[in-house]
Design brief:
The structure holds two protein chains of two kinds. By secondary structure, chain A is mainly α. Chain A contains two helices and no strands. Helix content of chain A is about 95%, strand content about 0%. Classes of the chains: A mainly alpha, B alpha+beta.
Chain lengths: ~160, ~350
């Protein structure tokens, strides 16, 4: 059967053609294509990993910001509380101070009044003493003049005293 | 729509049948020679015959004979003359029917060294150029756009290339598959392209290249060398001194069987690809020939059989498309498996 006998000529051409194509493609064809595809797949894998990492970091950042915000709020609350406490304290202190001060003032006033009172009493005493002396003097003088007029005089002087 | 289409098709077949029936005087079709002429090689590329006129592309004949020396001439020269420079076609009944022969001093037919660019040789060269252009075009695209994913034809080709490399070559060969992957990819695409081109009935296609034993012989030889040149020590040890009882090695039964196996593996590769593609071409041709065989059996028979013939030819062509891929795949797979077997490491 001629079909089953390989022809030398065809074997030669086939060897030549296939050999050349094999050489060309092995050098400039397959390695470039497969190499690029592999490079690309590596690149894609890396990119996916990087994206995942970035997502994770983003998540972390979100958590961190939330924590920072919460902290800040707490801080704010604390500061506000402290401020109100301080205010209350200041008011309280002021009140206390005011009370103490007013007490002092009152006391002072009282003391002043007392002093004035004492002074006035002293003055009154002096006046009374003077007046009595005057009266005594006048009485003594009138007594020396008339009896009737003496009693009138005393009465008049007494009236004067009460009026004074 | 479909019904209309089929009615028109059927009517066409009936007309064809009637027309063929009228021309009953035309000589009977020799199916065997039609098929054999197609599946075997030729010195010219026959395209079609209109009436008595053959439309062929003449191809160069390159021969070196002991009597007539080195000669290069176009095959059309042998149409005009019975012989050219002492070279002629072998006698139809002889050993060398359809081949170029020269007559030696005793008048016997002798085959010269024949390096003619026959139909199959030209088809192989065309397909090789096509393959190289397509792959280099794709590769140049990758060079230009390194990190881009290809679309369309390039994408399909990438998928095919990577599926062959990653799903076939890699698991079959193992860790140093990179060394072999260029050869196996070239073999796969060479077979695949040639199979597909063989299915196209018009000029650049239609040659039965992968169904020619010389072509499959060369492919099998490449695999043979790929397997045996780079085989590991363990591989040769398993062939020459396998782990079997000593008496089987004393009479070197196992080594002989194993040595024989070295040659049967590529031989099987050669035969299976050749036989599959040749059979596919034969069946398609045989089915097509049904039309012409039944032409003399009356219009009704011919119309019916034409319908059957066209239906089955389309079916077979679709099947051959599948076979084109499968055979290329199987050749590559078996080659990778054989290479993988030659890379065995010492197992503990």
């Amino acid at each position: 059967m001629s079909l089953l006998m390989p022809e030398t000529g065809l074997v030669f051409w086939m060897l030549l053609a296939f050999g050349i194509v094999f050489f060309i493609l092995a050098k400039f064809g397959w390695p470039i294509i497969t190499g690029m595809v592999e490079k690309r797949s590596v690149f894609i894998n890396d990119s996916v990993k990087a994206a995942e990492e970035a997502n994770k970091q983003l998540e972390n950042i979100k958590i961190e910001t939330a924590a920072i915000l919460a902290n800040a709020q707490q801080e704010q609350m604390k500061i506000l509380n402290e401020a109100s406490e301080l205010r209350n304290q200041i008011i309280q202190e002021a009140k206390e101070n005011a009370i103490v001060e007013s007490q002092k003032i009152i006391e002072n006033a009282k003391r002043q009044i007392q002093l004035e009172k004492e002074k006035s009493l002293e003055a009154m005493k002096n006046q009374i003493a003077e007046l009595s002396l005057d009266i005594v003097e006048k009485v003594l003088r009138a007594d020396l003049q008339k009896d009737k007029s003496q009693s009138e005089m005393i009465e008049k002087l007494l009236n004067e005293i009460t009026l004074n | 729509m479909n019904k209309k289409f089929f009615t028109i098709l059927l009517l066409l077949f009936v007309c064809l049948g009637l027309w063929a029936n009228e021309k009953e005087s035309t000589p009977k079709v020799d199916v065997k020679s039609v098929i054999f002429d197609h599946i075997s090689d030729a010195y010219e590329w026959h395209i079609t015959t209109i009436g008595e006129k053959h439309i062929t592309i003449p191809l160069p004949i390159i021969v070196y004979g002991e009597t007539n020396g080195f000669k290069v001439f176009m095959s059309s020269q042998l149409h005009h003359h019975d012989s050219y420079c002492g070279y002629q076609y072998g006698a139809k009944e002889g050993k060398y029917a359809g081949k170029i022969v020269e007559l030696n001093a005793r008048g016997e037919e002798v085959r010269p060294w024949d390096f003619s660019l026959t139909k199959n040789a030209v088809a192989i060269i065309i397909n090789c150029i096509l393959l190289a252009v397509v792959i280099l075009w794709v590769a140049s695209w990758y060079k230009k756009k390194p990190m881009e994913a290809p679309k369309g034809f390039r994408g399909a080709l990438e998928m095919l290339i990577m599926s062959i490399q990653d799903d076939l070559i890699k698991p079959c060969i193992g860790k140093d598959y990179r060394k072999y992957s260029p050869y196996l990819l070239t073999a796969f695409f060479f077979i695949f392209f040639n199979n597909l081109m063989g299915l196209i009935p018009l000029f650049p296609g239609g040659a039965n290249t992968t169904g020619n034993i010389a072509v499959t012989l060369v492919l099998a030889l490449f695999t043979f060398f790929a397997v045996n040149i780079f085989g590991t020590k363990e591989y040769w040890k398993e062939i020459l001194w396998p782990d079997v009882p000593i008496w089987m090695k004393a009479i070197p039964l196992m080594p002989i069987i194993e040595l024989f196996g070295i040659f049967t593996k590529p031989f099987a590769l050669m035969i299976r690809l050749f036989a599959n593609i040749m059979a596919g071409h034969s069946i398609v041709l045989g089915l097509t020939c049904l039309v012409f065989i039944t032409a003399s059996m009356g219009a009704a028979v011919c119309a019916g059989m034409t319908f059957v013939s066209v239906f089955f030819t389309i079916f077979m062509d679709c099947l051959e498309l599948l076979v084109a891929y499968i055979q290329a795949y199987v050749f590559t797979m078996l080659s990778s498996v054989f290479i993988g077997l030659s890379k065995v490491e010492h197992h503990s």
